[in-house]
Amino acid sequence: MIEMRDVGFGYHGGAELLSGMTLSLQPGMFHFLTGPSGSGKTTLLRLCYADLLPTAGQMTALGHELRDLSRDDIAALRRQVGVVHQDPQFLDHLPVAENIALPLTVAGEPVDMDALRDLLNWVQLGPQARALPPSLSGGERQRAALARAVILSPDLVLADEPTGNLDWDMSMRLMQLLIELNKSGKTVLVATHDLNLIRATKAQVTARVLRISGGTLQLAGADL
Ligand SMILES: Nc1ncnc2c1ncn2[C@@H]1O[C@H](COP(=O)(O)OP(=O)(O)OP(=O)(O)O)[C@@H](O)[C@H]1O
């Protein structure tokens, strides 16, 4: 799925922020990525969807060797990876339903209206289908972002601090959706510094916890 061998990365050719990272994301598994603010969680997620390329080591994502990706490879990879950003952006003049369907429309693919309705209901946004994004609450924005991230049926779902701005109830509601996705066979990787969130999720699903510490990646102990 995602394989890293001795991967390093530094911004703008500078000193390595991340180094010597060896990682294998296991298909169908729920993973957390944790570490203090500024440790490189977002950077590592960006490597996973080839938004950044490693400056050292070897890395493959869903069978694509990141070193020699063509434009077509990048497009193919991005289709297989759904990303929920920390602060998701929408086209504010388009209703929520159209925003969620955007990956399909951009790809020139038809929108199955029944499937779109099901997806909206799954993220509990049925009543907000025609609303404009600025009217959504923080939790609703994250759930809309999740729906948009999975509309192309990716194999891997990455979420970057998806609960960072949410209260506990809203956070757990979002985590339930990620757990459901995982139980349906998707590989999930959630970056968070919230250890309570990790513990509450681990009570419901088997999850591996990866921790960035000192610029490299470690598997966290069973206490987490
Ligand atoms: N585009 C960039 N150019 C240069 N430095 C960057 C860039 N993006 C991030 N950094 C730096 O890289 C380091 C890691 O940032 P990153 O956002 O990956 O950390 P993080 O663990 O996700 O942090 P947080 O939990 O606060 O979101 C920080 O020092 C940050 O300032």
UniProtKB/TrEMBL annotation:
One of its GO terms (biological process) is cell division. GO terms for molecular function: ATP binding. The keyword Nucleotide-binding applies. Residues 2-224 form the ABC transporter domain. InterPro entries: AAA+_ATPase, ABC_transporter-like_ATP-bd, ABC_transporter-like_CS, ABC_transpr_LolD-like, P-loop_NTPase. The keyword Nucleotide-binding applies. Keywords: ATP-binding, Cell cycle, Cell division, Nucleotide-binding. It holds the Pfam family ABC_tran. This is Cell division ATP-binding protein FtsE. It comes from Paracoccus rhizosphaerae. The lineage of its organism: Bacteria, Pseudomonadati, Pseudomonadota, Alphaproteobacteria, Rhodobacterales.
